[in-house]
Amino acid sequence: MPASRNILVLYTGGTIGMQQSSEGLMPASGFAERLGAQQAQLPSLQLPDWQFRELLPPIDSANMNQRNWLAMAEAIRNGVEQDGCDGVLVLHGTDTLAYSAAALSFLLLGLEVPVVLTGSMLPAGVSGSDAWDNLFGAMQALSNGVETGVQLFFSGKLMPGVRASKLGTASLEAFGVLPRMRTGQHVPVPGSLDFRQTRRPVPLAVLPLYPGITAAQLNGVLESGVKGLVLECYGSGTGPSDDAQLLDALSKAHRRGVVLVAISQCPQGHVDFDIYAAGGKLAATGLISGGGMTREAALGKLFSLLGAGLPQSEVEHWFAVDLCSERAE
């Protein structure tokens, strides 16, 4: 894990750089000057050299979407390939920080430099803020050496970007990695899926199963034009298997080419369709097991695969194997 000496700091907005307005806290530009001024006050810090890029306009991460992910990936590629950066720090709002970390994990497969995302629960400059600790902590981690791939740094912890989740809002220690069983064969990343591959936005949906869900409600999602669905099942991958209309809705969507993937809605869950008959009936509709993948990882991986223009069968193949430790330790 070589040390990063010249990093790209990519600012997207978020709480870390927000400033007070008449309407409340709002994303603000000009964060490079604030970062430089704060670093000048801490001369003992051993930090890598950095160059600053800003995605405009800076956004509240609650407004994050696929096009923002693609813009981040492009800016990171340019920073590495054109500007010679050997590490990347992405400053991001916390609401969708884990989603972006997961998406970038798949969009940047094969990139030979480390990418670290961080943010803060309180804006920089506010009393008790975690902003500078998180930002400079992430920069120091890059300076010390971080393995290639995407990581999330928060509250002193470096976490795999493809397995981290936001777990709370009442504490500065808002992110963590829950223990989820991981199974899956790790395979080399094919050229058709590496960071050079062009992606495009693709309509996706996430839907939890719940007592009383109907086929009509499920069809409302499946017939809305989505190309992929992350279905959050009960426990180890079960659902209302006695509802023939609901199962038929899934089967028809799969035959139309919609990619259907299943994850557990339990925080420490793992999908194994072979345990219960109810799970087997769901699997028979065309659902692909996400194993112990988080919602963020499943959505990010599905976007990366479908966004690359792969057909349904190839998406299902690559979703079922491990590409960057999303399915295996």
From TrEMBL:
PROSITE patterns named in the record: ASN_GLN_ASE_1, ASN_GLN_ASE_2, ASN_GLN_ASE_3
Active site: residue positions: 15, 94
Signal peptide: none
InterPro entries to which the protein is assigned, alphabetical: Asp/glu_Ase-like_sf (IPR036152), Asparaginase/glutaminase-like (IPR006034), Asparaginase/glutaminase_AS1 (IPR020827), Asparaginase/glutaminase_AS2 (IPR027475), Asparaginase_C (IPR040919), L-asparaginase_C (IPR027473), L-asparaginase_I (IPR041725), L-asparaginase_N (IPR027474)
GO molecular function list: asparaginase activity
Residue ranges annotated for the Asparaginase/glutaminase C-terminal domain, each copy included: 205-319
GO biological process: aspartate family amino acid metabolic process
Chain ranges of the L-asparaginase N-terminal domain: 6-177
Chain residues that bind substrate: 61, 94-95
EC number: 3.5.1.1
One Gene Ontology cellular component annotation held by this UniProt entry: cytosol
Highest taxon in the source lineage: Bacteria
Keyword Hydrolase annotated: yes
Annotated coiled-coil segments of the chain: none
Keywords from the UniProt entry: Hydrolase
Entry-linked Pfam families: Asparaginase, Asparaginase_C
UniProt family annotation: Belongs to the asparaginase 1 family.
Protein's name in the database: asparaginase
Gene source species: Stutzerimonas zhaodongensis
